[in-house]
Specification:
alpha+beta, 3-stranded antiparallel sheet, 4 helices
């Protein structure tokens, strides 16, 4: 009986017909996962660049409006929304740290496409950064040339 089992196992190990179908069936989940990760991470990178640009624009505008009155500061949220119109999933926060420093932060949730197969429906994308107020422009220096004798 042992001889029959041993011969069957040896024959199975030496047989290579249709092995590629088994290997492909076992690796298809890894292939789909890798393709999904590549496509979704490319989409995440594009969205992160977009939201970071909107955060930077609103932080720079806020830093330049530090001395503005309250009604003009209300427009700062509109600056972010104008630069990032896909803000349906966005949490935006602007904080004034001191007289010349502003920090803007936003978090957006981006849906995934192929990573849903692996169980990931959406991914958070945080963005943020500080901005300082621009220094006042330097007064022009004028040089007067005296007449040489």
């Amino acid at each position: 009986m042992n001889e029959i089992v041993r011969n069957t196992v040896r024959a199975f190990a030496r047989n290579t017909r249709s092995a590629i179908a088994i290997i492909f069936a076992l690796s298809i989940f890894c292939i789909i996962g890798a393709a999904g990760a590549a496509i979704d991470f490319r989409n995440d990178y594009a969205q992160r660049t977009h939201i970071q640009s909107a955060v930077d624009a609103s932080a720079l505008a806020a830093a330049n409006m530090l001395n503005a009155n309250a009604s003009e500061r209300q427009k700062l949220g509109a600056i972010f929304e104008a630069n990032y119109p896909d803000n349906q999933f966005t949490d935006y926060k602007l904080s004034v740290i001191d007289d010349a420093l502003v920090r803007a932060e936003a978090t957006s949730t981006v849906p995934t496409y192929l990573m849903r197969v692996m169980g990931t429906d959406d991914r958070p994308l945080p963005a943020g950064g500080p901005a300082t107020a621009a220094p006042p422009p330097m007064a022009r220096r004028t040089c007067s040339r005296s007449a040489r004798a």
